[in-house]
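In this notebook, the sequence line spells out the residues, with the fold written below as integer tokens. This is how one looks.
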Amino acid sequence: MPEPYRGALSRQPQRPLVVVDDPEAVELTGPVFGAADVTAIDSDLTRQHPGQPLGQRITVSGRVVDRTGRPVHGQLVEIWQANAAGRYAHRRDQHHAPLDPNFTGAGRCLTDDQGHYRFTTIRPGAYPWGEHSNSWRPAHIHFSLFGTAFTQRLVTQMYFPGDPLLPLDPIWCGVPDADRQRLVAAYDPELSVPGRALGYRWDIVLDGGPR
């Protein structure tokens, strides 16, 4: 069994939550975006720079549905990830793996009328994260989904099938046994691009309940 995820304790709020008297005021003063602000190149992380990024190209796609199976359309889906060497394009990432000048590792798209989303990217590498001695995070992609307001947000992670690091990862193991496999994408050759990219399917259910 892996050691417990110690980071959860340090990330808990240390002060009382802020009470908002007028929730509508939060929306009026928050960020605003429209469909025109999200372009096709935003969802293809391999086309955002002059050169081609290093690594195995993949497509990640699926549907966003509610707890009754109805598609959620117009949903803003954002991702961020490490490069093929396991390093984020962020100044706080001090991993000794090389940066890729042609890969920033961030993308976004809007779901269509049937709730579909699709990204083209590269498979991220594992990286050491200092949680305990010789600890490595399995390959994963971070997902963020906004609801009808910027105060409604789900942040989660997608993993890859067959990764030997999964049983050793405190975050993955911190999820109830029955739900862990929901975080693992499925390889789907129908989603692959011949000669270019492997395809993975990962559907997202917005429960809206206590789970």
